[in-house]
Write the structure tokens for this entry.
Amino acid sequence: MIPMENNCLLACVFVPVIGAFALPLIGRVSELARNLTALALVTVSLVTSLFLAPAAIAGHVISVSYSLPLGFNFILTADALAVFMAAASSLVGAIIVLYSFGYISHYNNRNEYYLMVTLFLGSMMGLVYSGNLIFMYLFWEITAIASWRLIGFFREKEYVLKADKAFLVTVFGALVMLLGFIYIYQVTGSFDLSAIKAAFKNNAIPDIAVALILIGILSKSATLPFHTWLPDAGVAPSPVTALLHAAVLVKIGVYVFARLFIATFTLSQIWHTVVPVIAGVSALVAAGAALVETDMKRIIAYSTVSQIGFILLGFAVSNEVGVVGALLYILMHGLAKGGLFLCAGIVEQNTKTKDITKMGGLIATMPVTAFSFLACALSVMGVPPFGGFFSKYLVFSGAATSGSIMITSIFLFGAFLTLIYLFRIFNMIFLGDPQKPPAKEGSGVMVLSVAMLAVLSIAGGILIKYPSDFVQTAVKQMMGI
Amino acid sequence: MPSLMILIPLFGVIILNLVFAVNSRMKKAAFWLALAIFSLQVVVAVFHHPALWNDSLGRIDSFLNVSFFVDHLSFIMFICIGMVSIASLFVARYGMKDEDDIFKFINLLIMASIGMSGIVMVKDIFSLYVFMEITAVSSFLLIAFPRSLESLEGSFKYLILSSIATVLMLTSIGILFLAAGGTDFDAIAAAIGASYENALVLAAIGLFICGLFIKGGLVPFHGWLPDAYTAAPAPVSVLLAGVVTKSAGIYTMIRITTSLLPHYQSVNNILMLVGTISIFAGALAAIGQDNFKRMLAYSSISQMGYIILGLGTGTILGIAGAVFHLLNHSIFKSLLFVNSAAVEKEIGTSDMNRMGGISQKMPVTGTTSVIAFLSTCGIPPLSGFWSKVIIVIALWQAGQYAYASLAIIASIITLAYFLSMQRRVFFGKLRAGLENLKDAEGGVLTVSVVLAALTIGIGIFFPFVFNTLILPVKEILVR
């Protein structure tokens, strides 16, 4: 055990979680200082995660634990899966915080905004590194609280209602999941993941527990039938939707799926059919909804629901190729979908509407946003050489090798629909007759952030070697190959 | 020493009326005397040094002819009683403007706390009854304090139902006295153990438990509770919800079931059933309420259900969870009632339809309310989460899977009504006509902040609190 790395691990979680509460105080003194502090806190997570990366790639597992009564031990574990996930989410998170400097600067409640965003990202780190079910649940719920306040950021009545809806749905799922955890606790006498892994080494986990936990995962990852809160949550400010619905929050569910059902337990055979079917239905229904919606942010939100289906598919087939694809998908989709939401935010702020039928020709006045949007959209569609191509290809390849041709073709159709609705939204917003009066380009930091995400989406494809090496180590570790 | 917990406040009341009643300046100082008494109570209970508690007062004790005893459960109750009384005291000073009123209120408050301190220290069933009556009579007067029609009605309802409870319990005490030849807990426990299947003894147990259900406001004996909580003046609501029903109903239930009926599975089954019904009935009724305090009252019924449910497991973990939830609930529910008092005082009504967006004008009240209700719903990392999760784990380990699932799912109803409250009262756009709203005065805000800090602190330092304060309570089972 190298103490330096243990400290890094603790800092990665607790610096943003505790630091978040200082932000409103700093905000009273200076806006700029608060913004920069928020960015710095999130960057601490990114830097510490990257610092842990070499050890993780080399296959070391760094762990910090404190013994508590009743098997509630506080454990942080940094293996390759956790480090990858933490780095991916804090990278997108940091860019989103940067974008917020411009976007949020003229609304009320800015102090609360930065507090909640930083707290959210910090608890995300806690969730990712947590080696204990009860603390995983604890951080899971803190992210729910933060997203509740963030969705209700504009205090309009209907917005607050939608925030409450999102909170209720995700908390309902989480409570059911908690029952599943308690079921496991009853069998193993511990919430500690390594103890649970040892207890379930030779036998599959009870199906009831899987079903209970799966409800929690589906509600958090906005998969059918618990997906309706996600499009509704589009009323939040755009950086929040990017953060919650594209990059970080919805990935919590699939991450926990990977962490529990691949890295810790073995699932019984039936789930390898049930989960892909749920994912497939979810992917198709959401893609259909995205085709007919006219609200820009709802389209992108439905697209997220649809894409989450692909990630779940990759994990559920649970062969090496599929899981590698799904993990890469988390990264690529986070970058690209975050970019789409942020572009939508720029468009929305400058045209004062979210209805795509009332837009057109914006490419003339906001070229950077338009090209960034296009790049991110191409990545989500899975067009080479963008990052999204490799992840989508690997997921399909994994599904095909597992022999489920039926399900693979459902998803192929889903991928085809993705192509259509993303081209549709791009056409309606950026091409066609120009709008009167022509809208301006967004402010400097906002355009810079979306351009960064677009560049990263391309770079993710061209430099696919680096993330994929990392992910392959993670998968080998998870599946014990 | 334990008898000092009664004697000091009693002398306090006497001094109050002999010395402090002389002029209005002295009457103002009564507040500080009461504050000192309650603070002392909290401090000696938190740092329960054995040297302090084991000394008997020799001559005074033999003169009074009482035998009090304290254990860790009593300490937790002392903390609750002292803390909630302090909160109530601050709310009274903030809410009541007439000095005479405050003075009378303080007298009654100390009397009620003497009653409750007695309840948690006695070990014979008749003294228990006497102290319960002291508490109840002070509560009637406190509820009727403003002498409005509404408050008299609430007080009258409580009086009637409380008398029924008293009659039930007295009858039961009579029968048990006949069976055991004494009223000491140990004697009665032995008698119950010996005449296990005697119908009369069983009836006595049933009657006593029904009486306690009434006192604790559990469904279906809860009719008095929402009226009394709503009609009572703000500081009294804090006291009632925070600690009176808990010590008279819930604490006594814990003490009676563990000391007298440790091996009655049928009693445990009844407790779990009544607990679950209370959880759901209270939560469902709370959804439909328009009055802030009434919603909180129904919420209390629901949360009392959790405590009884945990108690019904009969295991160490279940009882520890129940006691932990009792402590947590008395903190966050007092906090909510303190905040409701602030809102009611500043706006002039507790009708939620006439509020909206007041967080902007009352930031401290708004924020602390969010913390309190998230804790009530059992959202981590706040204190309510840990106590609920311990109760659910205990239920699961006792093989009560259905009750465990119901207890967890009920949390979502709790969240639903609190979110509706939050949306109508604190969140959202400021309602027209409330532009000049101010936050409550410093004393009350301090109380809110301290209670909110406790809710967060117990949540974060849960292992420490659980090990040092809650887990020693298991001695009541293994005695």
Notes: Residues 269-481 of chain A form one domain. Chain A has a mean pLDDT of 86.
